[in-house]
Structures are given as structure tokens and as C-alpha cells.
Description:
There is one protein chain. This protein is mainly α and 82 residues long. Helices cover 76% and strands 0% of the residues. The longest helix has 22 residues, at 29-50. Helix 1 packs across helix 2 (29-50), helix 1 (3-20) crosses helix 3 (60-81) and helix 2 crosses helix 3. The protein starts with a helix and ends with a helix. It is globular. The protein has helices at 3-20, 29-50, 60-81. The chain has one domain (3-81).
Amino acid sequence: MGILSWILMGLIAGVLGKFLMPGRDPSGWIITIVLGILGAVVGGFVGSQLGLGSVQGFDIRSLALAIGGTVAVLAIYRLVKR
């Protein structure tokens, strides 16, 4: 995927990840995009290691992996911010 596709996937995964894990986070849209992109990378890496697929295209499986990775990254982010 190109850089714009990663940013778009990160934005979508970040917003959906925050929707799944609501809370009082002081982060804005930039942090949401960064956490979403990191989540997409983490989700793609873990998914490819477990044989679940990878984040290569823009489909439901890659979006689910990206959202799962975003939720994990968001949980770690909240632990570190405390």
C-alpha cells in the first residue's frame, strides 16, 4: 500500500479502535492517526506470524487486523500515559 493508503487505513482503524475502547484520552486526530498506523503495522505483523493474513490490501481482513492492532497499541498507550 502507498503512504496515503496507510494513513487512510490508520485513520479508519484509529477511529474504530477508539470507538471500541472509549475513554478520556487527551490525544487529538494526529495521535489517532499515528496510533492507527502503528496498530495496522502491529496487526499486520501479528496476523502474518499467526497465518491470519496481512495488511496488504484494503479489505475486511486487513481492516480487522489493523483495528485489533490499534486496540492493542491504544491499551499500551494508556498504560504508558498513566
